[in-house]
């Protein structure tokens, strides 16, 4: 039986995409906007042996599966398919496609992370961060644009540019922290220094950022010097756990909590609380799960294997609870889920504009990882499979005073 007929047999209803395979068979409308091409039997083996979405990702990253048309639209179409999930249907499809030989998994693509040592040890965390962030600063410049901000932007309106939205995000964080000239800010997981430079340039704050990525720290040091901010802003290649006790006026954690791990969260927030003065504020900005019902934090998925190894997401309720138990009074919480979908759409557009350069800079397989990752995450935020929350906490003094205004001082 042809591969196309097997696919049609697994789908309940019409096939809304173009489908073609190496045996010459085809299915679906020829004028569909997107199409999938199975280029080899190895692609079938990846699809059969990979759990969850990992098989599709391995086939695509390796080049054995091609997606024609826009990746985001292709994923929307795949998510809309109604498949025969019965064991009998899947067993018959396996037999028709080639039988037991497909169950011998091909070698994993070299882009998959292979970490060693104790989870969330300093050495393993360094390797995990390096896997994703020490790719190429030139690549990130193309992807992120001039802001070099690799976290969810805050769009004042749908027509705002990515740069305007990233400025708005940094400024919102600054206002929630009530930054004032002469204050000292610690930014943990600072990336390329966007928040550090914003605080120094716009608010006259003396800001220190720390990152586990050496390439980020090198890029940030150069950017700070070129901006004439070296007297106020600094970025160090340093594990946040090695930041000495020095009572800061404010701490921002933008996109780091995802890398900490559930078991380490109480120690993480206690560590930050101990580095704040009384009345000092912490703004935690991170990706979360929509709830805490899914126990599969260590599941082997595309994101964990290719993008953020050892990453762990928690529900915002759990994070708020841990922050509270670690000595913070929670004063404000906000969900920016739709904003992250808009941010990812902008990053995807940047990647496509620089596709040829990106392939030359980081290689075809790694560029395909990014194309799939950005489109898949955009869909996830749109459909409430993941969220983005900002949580503001304050360290109270021994008498319970936190210095907060009666009403928020930010719009």
TrEMBL record:
InterPro entries: CFA/CMAS, CMAS, SAM-dependent_MTases_sf. GO terms for biological process: methylation. Signal peptide: none annotated. It is an enzyme of class 2 (transferase). It comes from Catellatospora aurea. Its EC number is 2.1.1.-. This is Class I SAM-dependent methyltransferase. Gene3D superfamilies: Vaccinia Virus protein VP39 (3.40.50.150). The keyword S-adenosyl-L-methionine applies. SUPFAM superfamilies: S-adenosyl-L-methionine-dependent methyltransferases. The lineage of its organism: Bacteria, Bacillati, Actinomycetota, Actinomycetes, Micromonosporales. Keywords: Lipid metabolism, Methyltransferase, S-adenosyl-L-methionine, Transferase. The keyword Iron does not apply. Coiled coil: none annotated. Belongs to the CFA/CMAS family. GO terms for molecular function: methyltransferase activity.
